[in-house]
Amino acid sequence: MTKRVFFSFHYDDVKTFRVNVVRNHGLTKETGQSGFFDASIWEDAELHGDPAVKRLINSNLENTTVTCVLIGTDTWERRWVRYEIMKSYDRGNSLLGIHINGIPDRYRQTFLKGKNPFDYLGFYINSSGVVNNYQESNDTRWSIYQDLTPNIGPFANKYWNTGHKLSNWIQCYDWYSDDGYQNFATWVENAK
Fold first, then answer.
1. Could you give the CA distance from residue 35 to residue 6 in angstroms, rounded to a whole number?
2. What is the 3-state secondary structure (H, E, C) of 64-122?
3. Could you read off the pLDDT of 5-62 as tens digits, one per residue?
4. Would you give the distance in Å from CA 21 to the centre of its chain?
5. Could you give all domains of the chain from N- to C-terminal order, each with its CATH number?
6. Which residue of 10, 100, 105, 108 is surrounded by the most CB atoms within 10 Å?
7. Which residues pair with 38 in a beta bridge?
8. Residue 146, SS3?
9. Where do the Thoeris protein ThsB TIR-like domain residues begin and end (predicted)?
10. At 93, phi and psi to the nearest 5?
C-alpha cells in the first residue's frame, strides 16, 4: 500500500532548494514514480491568520499516513512546524525526520545539522494514564504547548507520571550521509 506523505519544513529552507531536493527526488528516478503523495501546504501557510492556518494544515494532513519533517537550521523553533508535528502525532500519523543541511545549495554550500525538533516537543502522562496537555521547550525550559489540546491515550501503567520527548520514538536520518535518494521509500515504510 502506498503511504501518503505530508512534508513539514521551515519556509526559508525552500529558498536554498534543499527542501525541493527531497520533495522532488522521485521525479528523477528511472521509474518516474516516487511512491508517495506530496500533501505539503508551504505555499499558502503564511497567507492566513492562526485559525485559518490550523484549518489549512489539518485539511492537508487528511488522508496522509506519514509526516516527514525536513530539518534545517531553524526548523526546530518554527511555530507551524511544531503544530504540524503535534497535530500529526495527535492524529496517529507515523513521523520521521530528515536533516537536509548536508545537501549542497545552489551555491554548493552546506551547513551543520539543525537541532532535532522532536527533542523540543513531548507530553507528560499523569497518574491516570492520560495526557492533559502537550509540552514544548524553547531550549531552556518546558511549558504547556498552547496550539493543540491532546486527543491521545490512555497509556499503560508503566508510562504514568512520566514525561516523554517525541525524539524517544521518532527516527531521524541525514539525506546526504544516509543516502536519502536511495533510502527514502524505506524510511517512510519504517516510520513509527
1. 13
2. CCEEEEEECCCHHHCHHHHHHHHHHHHHCCEEEEEECCCCCCCCCCCCCCCCCHHHHEE
3. 999 998 888 888 888 889 888 765 544 434 454 445 545 656 767 888 898 889 889 9
4. 17
5. 3-114+167-190 (3.40.50)
6. 100
7. 5
8. coil
9. 6-102
10. -65, 145
